[in-house]
Amino acid sequence: MKIKKNDNVIVIAGNYKGSTGKVLKVYPKMNRIIIEGVNLRKRHTKPSQANPQGGIIEKEAPIHVSNVMLLDPKSNEPTRIGTKIIIDDKTGKKKRARVSKLSGEML
Predict the structure, then answer these.
(1) pLDDT in tens, 30-49
(2) What does the alpha-carbon distance between residue 103 and residue 68 come to, in Å, rounded to a whole number?
(3) Average model confidence (pLDDT) for the chain?
């Protein structure tokens, strides 16, 4: 999965098409992510010690990764993600970095 936590993404399919937000949580085994303010669901809760009032709580539900695209940090437009191998100067080891296909900017 190429999308990580704290990435800015845009929804490209479904009921929330066109909305953007920050990735809050990633579920790689299920290929799903939770985006801030997207795919809100209402949950009816009983009063508890943590929530003495109870009532209806709105919270984000997971959305499939194929329905989102990463936003380019430079132009703020949807972009695909590539990888680039970078050699670390201090250790001499190779590292993989995520790169925007649109601008070539590192993510």
Answers:
(1) 999 999 999 999 999 999 99
(2) 19
(3) 93
Beta strands in 1-88 (DSSP E): 8-11, 20-27, 32-35, 40-45, 55-60, 63-64, 68-71, 78-79, 81-87
Burial of 38 (0-12, 13-18, 19+ CB in 10 A): buried
Query: Is residue 71 a contact partner of residue 9, using CB atoms and an 8 Å limit?
Result: yes
Q: Which residue, 107, 92, 94, is CA-closest to 3?
A: 107
| CA atoms in the 13 A half-sphere facing the CB of 85 | 3
- For residue 54 the two structure tokens come to 């109870």
**Residue 58 to residues 4, 35, 39, 61, Cα–Cα distance (Å):** 24, 13, 10, 10
Express each pLDDT in 14-34 by its tens digit. 999 999 999 999 999 999 999
The tokens for 38 are 């997207």
Report how far apart the first and last C-alpha atoms of the chain are (Å, whole number): 14
